[in-house]
Amino acid sequence: MCTSLTQIALCLTKEKRYDEALNCHQRALAIYEKYYPLGHASVAVTLGCMGYMFYEQDKYNESFNFIQQAMIMQKNFYPNGHIDMAISLFNMGNLEYHRKNYDKSLKMYDRGLLMFRKLNLSNHILAAALLENIGKIHIDEKNNYDKGLHYYQQALTLLETYYPSYLARIAEILNDMGHVFFKQQRFDEALDFHHRSINLLKEYYSSNHVKTVSFLRNFDNILENEEFIKHHEQVLISRKENGTTRGNICIGSNCNGISHIKLSRNNFSEAFDFAQQSITFTEKSNPTHYIMTVDNLSNISEALMHQNKFVEAFDFEQKALKILKIHCPTNIIKIIESLNQMGNLRRKQEKNSSSLEANILFTLMSLGGIKYKERNFDESLNYYNQAVNILKEFYSTDYSRIIFSLNWIAFIYYRKQSYGQAIEFYEQCLRIDEANSVAGQLTTAEFLMIHIQFNFSMNIL
């Protein structure tokens, strides 16, 4: 009963119903006192939860008293250490941080880390939080960037190794590290970490989610920084003069970076030129760097699209898709993005079509895309299914767009972890492809690779 009361109190705390939460905690403590007059380990848990409740109300003195009581009790019950003690140290560290007692906060965090290591729980998710918080204090309060980055890197490695599905958490650390690199004027590293962060957030949320937009601003701040641009141009000149193979690799990377800058500044001709240069140097020095080549082709496609050269833009994006399908067939996210861009270009070409069905189709597919970005997968599926029905009725020979829509439906089912239905729709794509030999779509071998991946996902759940 006491455990249930404590759980209810935690839920009430999350809902900011603090008076009701306090009442539940007090009822639990009264029962404990009646049946365990000499104390019990669970009493410490309740005290810690009460400390958290006051912490959430910014009542730090009250919070301190309850957490301290919990820690004293835990020390008596667990002389050799316990995970509850590590959690209390973490909570006390957070409390001292918000009281601006940064040295005390560091001390608590360090003790918490030692406790996790003592218990052979160094890979616990809270250990990552402790490492991240220690890094934050060293950076924000001690101005010790190198030491802070050291702790951030440990937290990042832990999450990527043991919690790879925690995309939002990983993205936040990458973003924080990118911000530190930017402060240190280590622009290449800053750009790389922010870029990685944004890609993860796009995968976890959507391109227009508030957190993604916030992180994109950090990325844009780097791209618009004059010191960064000057740095890139100087490095590019130096590497061109150097002329070594290693130089070619770096020149390709720098040209790619400048291409992104030019796109962000609407300098589309220059963006095109730098992307072409990047492809040239990359093909000379590292022809198997397919992702770099794909990124450059997509930059060229985007630059041409903004110049209303839709046919050429479509051709370059199609080249990017072909490379992905041949050399990166398991990168489903990137393949879908490329297909989506090709669909956007097709729609721009057909923008002036007077066909009512075409307008309805465009609206349905647009709504499907919007709902997908909002992570409203059920509504997105509804719109894409309606689009497929119109395509089959009025454009029954437009196999490319039918497969494109079916691909989206399959992918959304995949994101919903409805793997059986995802396979069903990919099988429809395959049947249309085999019957009509649609250029630019999944081949039998590529489909089978995805089929195997889905079956593997189903088996491990």
Automatic annotation (TrEMBL):
Keywords: Repeat, TPR repeat. TPR repeats lie at residues 171-204, 403-436. Gene3D superfamilies: Tetratricopeptide repeat domain (1.25.40.10). It comes from the Eukaryota. It holds the Pfam family TPR_10. This is Uncharacterized protein.
